[in-house]
Structure formats: C-alpha cells, structure tokens
Amino acid sequence: MLNFTVKILFIGLFLISCSNMKNSGQYVYVEKSGEIKKVARRYGVTVDELKALNPDKKFNGGEWVFVPSKVGFAYFLNDTYVVEDYSSLGTGRFMWPVPNFYKVSSHFGPRGRRHHDGIDIPAPKGTPIVAVDSGKVIYSGSGIRGYGNLIVLNHGDEVFTVYAHASKRIVSKGDAVKKGETIALVGNTGRSSGPHLHFEIRVKNKVRNPGRYLSQARD
C-alpha cells in the first residue's frame, strides 16, 4: 500500500504527458537514426531543414531534435514555453537535480489545457539524478500512474521534492539521503516522450515553480 502522505500529495494530479515544447517549436525524441525521415514527414519539414535547425545533432538516434512549431503539435496546443538554460540561476535552497544538464524543455505552469506541475530536464538515459537537499525517502516505486519509476523526498516543514521517469531507483523508502547524493538514474518510464527527469517541488501539498527554489550549485 502506498504511503498515505504520498497519496495525499498526488490527489487531483493531472496525468503527465511530458512532451517537450519550445516557443517556436517542439523537441521530438528520435530513438533511431532512420526515424529522422519519418519525423520530417510527420511534421511537414525536410531533413535538411531539421539539420539546419539542429547543427549540434548527429542524427544517429537517441537525440532530442527541434521541430518548428508552426507545423508541430505545440502550435495546436498554443504552447508558448521557451526552452531555457537554467545554468545562470541565482542562489536557491536546492541544488540542481541533474548535474551538468541545465536545459529545461517543458516548464511549470499551464500547458495546453492542463497544468504541468514541474519542469522537464532532458538528459541521456542513465545520467545520475541527485537529491536537491537532504531529506528522507518517503516513496520509491512505480505505483503512481504516469510517473514511471518515482522517488519522493521529504525535506521537513511540509516540503517535498519529486523525481519521475527514472530508469533505475537507487534509494528505498525510509532511507536518509544527503544533498547531492545520487538517488536515481534518468530514464523514460511512465508517460514520457524520451529520457528526462520530471522534477517537482511541493510545499504544504501545493505544487510550486521549481525555478524559484533551484540554484546551479555543483557541490
């Protein structure tokens, strides 16, 4: 049976569909090299256009590829979130949960007709996820629909952090963890469009914008 506290935390939560959006387009996860042609056809662009928009990509598969929004799904959802680099954030209580990966592909707040309760941080499968602050593991499992492998930490004072879609859970319920300790590995479990961390901060049972709490701390 799930911990009662965890149940309360997730009452009324909308199912997560962590597609990765951008102001002028969206990011699509391309698993295999041959799929890039299918992606181009699906969104009405050419492979050459995709390559021009993604000069840092090798197109060998296992990559997030940017697609213009005017022909993409983001356009129809009127999604206006910009993919930002959070590496310049100021000092906050919590350290960054995925060291060395500071791009945010889907932000906190309204997303289409739903509310995105956290932020999505794309990173390769197996990348370490760390505890943003010291606390106690109150949930480690895969029983919350949509979240896949999930870790929830209690930091005291009714402050909780949530780490979803992990490929592997390293800590167990009841474990005490230290700030910066690896608690899971980035994955693509649950309702997810590619490997990334879905991260939430909940204070007094309400979701909060993680951008107001996080810092770029590397220690």
Structure description:
With 219 residues, this protein is mainly β. The protein contains four helices and 17 strands. Strand 11 and strand 12 (159-166) form a beta hairpin. The protein is elongated.
Features:
single chain, Membrane-bound Lytic Murein Transglycosylase D, Chain A, Glucose Permease (Domain IIA), three-stranded antiparallel β-sheet, 219 residues, 2 domains, 17 strands, mainly beta
Assign the CATH architecture of the largest domain.
Answer: Distorted Sandwich
Low-confidence stretches: 11-24, 70-91
Rg over CA atoms, rounded to whole Å, is 17 Å
Percent of residues in helices: 10-25%
Helix-strand pattern, N to C? HEEHHEHEEEEEEEEEEEEEE
The CATH C-level class name of the largest domain? Mainly Beta
Main sheet record:
7 strands, antiparallel
Strand percentage: 25-35%
Question: Can you identify the CATH superfamily of the largest domain?
Answer: Glucose Permease (Domain IIA)
List the helices and strands and how they pair.
Blueprint: H1 4-9, E1 20-22, E2 25-30, H2 35-42, H3 47-53, E3 63-68, H4 73-77, E4 84-85, E5 103-104, E6 109-111, E7 114-116, E8 119-122, E9 128-130, E10 135-141, E11 149-154, E12 159-166, E13 168-169, E14 176-177, E15 182-185, E16 196-203, E17 206-208
Antiparallel strand pairs: 1-2, 2-3, 4-5, 6-7, 8-16, 9-15, 10-11, 10-14, 11-12, 12-16, 13-15, 16-17
Briefly, what is this?
By secondary structure, this protein is mostly beta strands. It is built from four helices and 17 strands.
